[in-house]
Specification:
Low-confidence stretches: 1-16
Order of helices and strands: HHEEEHHEHHEHHEHEHHEHEH
Number of helices: 13
Structural class: alpha/beta
Oligomer: single chain
Bound molecules: ligand C2E, magnesium ion
Shape: globular
Strand content: 15-25%
Largest sheet: 8 strands, mixed, barrel
Radius of gyration: 19 Å
Strand order of the largest sheet: 1-2-4-5-6-7-8-9
Length: about 280
């Protein structure tokens, strides 16, 4: 086993590209193999209405378990997958799997509003991304309004014109768009106002800030900004009753976080939903 399996090395590689080419190639090979061997799988984290605690849906989150049982966090392997192009087939698989999972839950009678899926900029830029989304919806039978694509704020800043067009085209399908990690990038406000977006996700960093001297001031700003723009607001990383209380008071509509539930296996969803009621 190489040192590269340790989390720190991955982080070093992905964040600083400081690893040897040979080692990098090997990691990519492992990642490709992992995909083939179904060692990549999805976890689902509940999103709730902060007013009445109703479960709105789930965010699908990718996981990689290596042969020796180690968990590699997505922040460490998604840049790798983006670099190798694997993210295109991987992302397609995520999208389809999430749609099928959601459809199954609806078929079983669970009253949910959405399944949220993270989309990489590389994926988004593929000319056939629209077709991919359309076929995932069609093949799973999921009505488009149940699907939410999470794009990051940094994506909105890359390649402006084309991005807006692609997003508008996707919106014609009837799905929902959320801006993930909102507040961590620097998108222009006039641009944001023009984008066909439904929801802003307050980044976990600003929820964590509630515990510091600064308090919830950024979370408050984002909530107010979102309201002004007519958008729904969801907070991620809610870990304590204090976070929940403060966000509720600010008028934040929705949330997810360890306080409510950690990301869970698909098989854990149904028992969890029953217990939550
Ligand atoms: P994200 O989309 O912002 O996802 C939220 C992250 O915060 C998840 O980490 C989630 O497990 C974590 N989280 C949620 N609530 C809490 C909490 O209360 N406390 C703490 N400490 N963490 C919390 P995860 O699953 O490690 O994902 C990290 C990032 O990887 C995601 O950030 C997303 O950008 C990316 N990612 C995950 N799955 C996919 C995927 O299928 N495709 C793409 N392109 N990116 C993905
Ligand atoms: Mg996300
Ligand atoms: Mg997020
Ligand atoms: Mg985040």
């Amino acid at each position: 086993r190489t040192k590269a399996y340790q989390r720190g090395s991955y982080t070093l590689f992905t964040r600083e590209m400081g690893i040897e080419i040979r080692e990098r190639a090997m990691l990519m090979q492992h990642l490709h193999k992992a995909f083939d061997a179904e060692r990549l799988y999805l976890m689902y984290q509940p999103q709730i209405d902060l007013k009445n605690r109703r479960v709105l849906g789930f965010e699908a989150l990718l996981r990689w378990r290596t042969d020796d049982g180690q968990m590699i966090p997505p922040a460490d392997f998604i840049p790798l997958a983006e670099h190798s192009g694997l993210i295109i087939s991987l992302g397609a698989w995520v999208l389809r799997t999430a749609c099928f999972t959601m459809m199954q839950l609806l078929d079983k009678g669970f009253q949910l509003d959405r399944i949220a899926v993270n989309v990489s900029v590389i994926q988004f830029r593929q000319p056939d991304f629209f077709d991919l989304v359309e076929s995932a919806l069609r093949d799973s039978g999921l009505a488009p309004h149940f699907l939410e694509l999470e794009i990051t704020e940094s994506m909105t800043m890359s390649g402006a014109g084309l991005f807006e067009e692609s997003l508008a085209r996707l919106k014609t399908l009837g799905l929902q768009i959320a801006i993930d990690d909102f507040g961590t990038g620097f998108s222009s406000l006039s641009y944001l106002d023009k984008l066909p977006v439904d929801r802003l996700k307050i980044d976990r960093a600003f929820v964590m800030q509630i515990d510091t001297e600064n308090g919830p001031r950024i979370a408050e700003l984002i909530t107010q900004l979102g309201k002004k723009l007519g958008l729904q607001i969801i907070a991620e990383g809610i870990e304590s009753e204090l976070h929940l209380e403060v966000l509720q008071k600010l008028g934040c509509d929705e949330g997810q976080g360890f306080l409510i539930a950690r990301p869970m296996l698909e098989s854990a969803i149904e028992p969890w939903l029953r217990e939550w009621k």
